[in-house]
Design goal:
By secondary structure, the protein is an alpha+beta fold. Strands 1, 2, 3, 4, 5 and 6 form a six-stranded mixed beta sheet that branches. The chain starts with about 20 loop residues before the first helix and ends in an 8-residue tail after the last strand.
Amino acid sequence: MSAEAADPGAPLRRRSRPRIDLRRLGRVALRGPVSRDRLPDAISHVAEAHRAHHPDADLTILRRAYVLAESSHRGQMRKSGEPYITHPLAVTLILAELGAETTTLTASLLHDTVEDTEVTLDQVKEQFGDEVCYLVDGVTKLEKVDYGAAAEPETFRKMLVATGNDVRVMSIKLADRLHNMRTLGVMRPEKQARIAKVTRDVLIPLAERLGVQALKTELEDLVFAILHPEEYEETRALIAAATGPDDPLETIADNVTHTLRDAGISAEVLIRPRHFVSVHRVRRKRGELRGTDFGRLLVLVGEDADCYAVLGELHTCFTPVISEFKDFIAAPKFNLYQSLHTAVVGPEGAVAEVLIRTHRMHKVAEAGVVALGNPYAQDPAAAPQTEPSDERADPTRPGWLSRLLDWQESATDPDTFWTTLRDDLAQDREITVFRTDGGTLGLPAGASCVDAAYAQYGDLAHTAIGARVNGRLATLSTVLGDGDTVQPLLAQDTASGPSPDWLDHARTPAARIAITGWFSDHPDEAKPDPETADATGPGTRGEPAAATEREAPARSRSGPRPTGVVVDDPNAQVRLAGCCTPVPPDELTGFVVRGGAVTVHRRECPAVAAMQEIGRAPVAARWADGEGGESDAGCRVTLVAESFGRPRLLADLTEAIATADAAIVSATVEPPSEQRVRHTYTLRLPDAAGLPGLMRAMRDVAGVYDVSRAQHPAPTG
């Protein structure tokens, strides 16, 4: 399976085998059973792909699974007109090319038999064993006749729970969705869009978290083509125009190859084309594409130490772009991904991004958990278990999956589960924090001490009064960094409950569901307005409250400044929220706060969801025609700069800000963590139109690898 530029409108190109004709396989499938001493012709391609990864695999069980699948689906046709058996064959081939082991392929061939034919789970279990039966059951949809509109979310809940015991369940589901997306053109446009949106919001993030990049990238391109056809065609035209004999990456690749050969390093240097969505993202980030932006160099070596040897040679013989360096070998991503990322300047100033990894790392980067084989295979040297257990310990279960399994038990309502699942999967980074007892907690990036308290103590966290972070007292609103040590502090009074303000700082579904549930069970409890809570604290908690906005700069003795925002009530006092500092052309949502004023947020601001969860009605808001933020004094915005620590970094950043004619209202610099530093600046610009240029100027500072808009209240220094 190639993770390179996948064109949803054209056949995939494979070096090892020509594209498989599924219609021909369908005709072969309809010819009936074959002799017992050989595999059916229809799955010979699956067998070939499987043996490429597992030369000693026993294919007998695959033959039996195919015979059952073909006979049970016989007479069924897909909407495309192909025999239905072509679908499980295609799904199984996808998994075989990724390196899935025999049990997964067997279940893949049978994955629709229980759902769409007369075959029962008992029959599958009797003929193929418990493991295959578990996988088939895990991907079998729930009936709409029994669940109605809740069938889809409850099916995904069932799959997640099954994935918690066996990650191979989700592998089969992802391959199933990929083949369905490849053949989605026969559906009505509205159904294509609905399926594409669910794929975008749920399946693609799950593929990312399981590390199956080969599936994720093609799914992204297929969704892109359906939901954004015009931008897709523009990107396709750009890639086609860039394809030619004068590829600047070819020259740099040749130079890298000679450099490594002269250094005595055995390495394979490849050009890895970007897929459509990747090219589109680079174009949005940089505006104008360079010739080297359509691909990256991939250097494959034998051992981990060789990766660093290659890096040293590249940084010695070429000019490195230090801000592009990332070490995912020493600190792997939460989805098993390992690689060194860097960028070097080639001839005539061309900049090429370079990925350096071992062949094993590359296999895992492409196939993720699928490349791990059977994680439940018993070690022959291990002592047999004396007592059978219904629940297996999954060595591949990552922290994010454990969190999903924990909070889904509390989300009894299908709508709550579905919404919360999408929100949780939208968190694309994960951090690890340490408990004082030596344990660890896996949390999404941006998580606070509130999240850590609920992750560690469950409902007992309702009594939290503060925390110690790295040995120092901290408020519950404190945002945690990767590697922090956190100790939530609980009150002796077990009858006390949470503060409504905590919803502003909770990033994990478990914490939000628990807090919201407590207030549902205690409707008579006072609920301070989260927008105007007393800055001294939420009453019973005795901790400084991190309000959802910092309004002091927006209030003056001469009255409120004009904001350039129009709301439904022309007489209402309007102010811009300091938690997300909206500027044109951000989409807006407002809320009425105490005193009748309307506070306006960016639509994606976390405070918006917090307001709606406590029943606050949104107020329609938009930018006035021709206006641009705070018209008499420019616009105010909070930016977060992520960087590697180095001397003069702060001076260089402030110089870049000053050069962009921005005034610094406040600034904070968090203590370095693993040589990484986070700077938070609240700035005032003469005009919102200057914001993209300012962010580009900050990103261009050596050592800065990301600049983004703040999504939560920033300290005011």
